[in-house]
Design goal:
By secondary structure, the protein is an alpha+beta fold. It contains 19 helices and ten strands. It folds into two domains: 98 residues, no CATH class; 362 residues, Cytochrome P450 (Cytochrome p450, Orthogonal Bundle). A five-stranded mixed sheet has the order 1-2-8-5-3. The protein has a three-stranded antiparallel sheet with strand order 4-10-9. A two-stranded antiparallel sheet has the order 6-7. It is globular and about 55 Å long. About 5% of the residues have low confidence.
Length: 513
């Protein structure tokens, strides 16, 4: 993409899966569309639309509804705020620890046989048990449910051809089975939410006010219950914690998505099931690439691993071995919280800067947009103007924006890739977590989790999950890619990295005497 920027300038077009996209890079051009001024969020790919039911005529899209988006976002911020994260931490740790135990048992603790496959399975379990908190009863076969979810995820960005045997056809069939399974499991939630909806006078903002009031205290109580229950885990996933009779309910992500669909007028059993699928997709897809990209980069850097280990030893000396929210997340998450793991935080941010977990969301213009088109190398030349018509799709492609960061990039367009993004040829200079520890070198552009009113409400949960896995792994092991050039040999780099089969084996070398 940097090559296109050099050749065509700050605005250019490309075709992706048959959809014409205008890639914008200038902050002034991006500001309006990404603040929903003259634009709205949209995913233009037909396979995604069919599976998520957000195509025209199937408007299951709370983010595109301006009246519902604000209250819906407040619900999510309540569910995933400091108290919510405290409640979810024991669940996340139980799921991650169960997977670590499986990795150790599978190869005698010597390796992760396929990093991509294993973090994919881990991400789906985290989405089921931590993000959406899907209440799977004992009678539901977890492995079969997970397989259907994986099949569903595989079809989201597949070629829009639903021929028998295609990824989209398999995903559509899997979705119907998932909806059929989820509907009855969510019946109690749907009825409870309907009662609260009526009690709030069928006004979404009033419903959100009622549900979020006192949720922090309820979440703290739930955290204690979940922590006590996590020791009983034996199935490879955390079990839902039950609240004492009469206790205030902690606001959950499940509450947020079901209520959001109700705000749009959809209160059926199917709508509740599809809403939870939305939450699972949002969590699983982002988490699996965040985990894979971060672990791959860290495994390529013995120096970074030693720094993380040293910081963890200091954390254990100061706070004990427990990995709490206060230890894992920076002060912005909780008032007065100390930055106990600034280097670990810098590592995750640097990995997400260099290899973002998402390529960036798109916007559909609801009004014409005027942008500059002068070529990047045309210094001093007059800028021309382009009018992008209403209805067109515009895109802030995150990796390209990170290339153009004014703190990291010197403006040189003679190179194929700026040094701070060139992990292939300049790994030590590109993957440098220390840049986040100083105000002078801290990157200005960081759009992995969006921005403004569409900044991902689950970003702190994603950070917590990635840091948990890194801390638990690197307290015991050093990681080493068997094929050090795994990323360079990947079969797919865009929009997500998919490694070549057989190249993603990670060796686990014990560092515990």
């Amino acid at each position: 993409m940097f090559g296109r920027f050099r050749r065509y300038g700050p605005t250019f077009t490309l075709s992706l899966m048959g959809v014409r996209l205008y890639v914008l890079t200038q902050p002034g051009d991006l500001r309006g569309p990404y603040r929903d001024e003259g634009a709205e969020p949209a995913v233009p790919f037909s396979s995604f639309q069919r599976l998520m039911e957000v195509a025209p005529g199937r408007p299951y899209d709370v983010q595109a509804d301006k009246a519902a988006h604000g209250p819906w976002r407040r619900m999510f911020l309540s569910a995933l705020g400091p108290a919510g994260l405290q409640a979810l931490l024991p669940r996340a740790q139980a799921v991650i620890q169960a997977h670590l135990s499986q990795w150790e048992a599978a190869a005698g603790g010597s390796c992760i046989a396929s990093l991509f496959r294993e973090v994919r399975l881990l991400a789906v379990d985290l989405a089921i048990d931590v993000i959406a908190e899907v209440p799977l009863p004992p009678g539901v076969q977890r492995s079969a449910f997970r397989d259907k979810l994986l099949c569903f995820l595989d079809g989201l960005f597949g070629l829009p051809i639903a021929l028998p045997g295609s990824s989209v056809a398999r995903a559509l069939a899997a979705k119907e089975e998932l909806v059929a399974a989820l509907g009855p499991l969510l019946a109690a939630d749907r009825l409870r939410m309907a009662e609260q909806w009526r009690a709030a006078g069928s006004r979404y903002s009033a419903l959100v006010d009622a549900l979020t009031t006192g949720s922090a205290a309820a979440a703290t109580d739930a955290a204690a219950t979940a922590a006590a229950a996590s020791g009983k885990e034996g199935s490879g996933a955390a079990q839902p914690a039950s609240s004492p009779p009469g206790a205030a309910a902690r606001v959950t992500v499940r509450d947020a998505v079901i209520s959001g669909f109700m705000a749009l007028g959809f209160d059926s059993e199917r709508a509740a099931a599809v809403s939870v699928l939305h939450a699972v997709v949002a969590g699983a897809d982002t988490t699996r690439f965040a985990l894979f990209n971060t672990l791959a980069l860290v495994a390529m850097s013995p120096r970074v691993q030693e720094e993380i280990f040293a910081e963890q030893q200091r954390v254990i000396a100061a706070h004990g071995p427990e990995l709490s929210v206060r230890v894992l997340l920076l002060g912005s998450v909780g008032a007065g919280a100390a930055a106990a793991t600034p280097y670990l935080d810098a590592v995750v941010r640097e990995a997400m800067r260099l290899l973002p977990a998402t390529p960036g969301n798109m916007r559909r213009l609801t009004a014409d947009l005027r942008v500059a088109t002068a070529a990047a190398g045309n210094k001093g030349g007059a800028a021309s103007e382009l009018v992008i018509p209403k209805g067109a799709m515009v895109w802030r492609f995150v990796p390209l924006q990170h290339c153009l960061d004014p703190v990291c990039w010197d403006g040189n367009t003679a190179v194929d890739v700026p040094p701070h993004m060139d992990w292939r040829n300049n790994f030590e200079g590109a993957f440098r977590p220390e840049r986040w520890l100083s105000e002078e070198t801290r990157p200005k552009y960081y759009y992995t989790f969006g921005s403004d009113s569409h900044l991902c409400v689950g970003q702190n949960l994603a950070y917590m999950e990635v840091k948990l896995l890194l801390a638990l792994l690197l307290r015991k092991y050093r990681l080493r890619l068997e094929a050090r050039d795994m990323l360079a040999r990947a079969t797919q780099m865009f929009p997500f990295i998919i490694p070549r089969r057989g190249t993603d084996r990670v060796l686990l070398e014990s560092c515990v005497a």
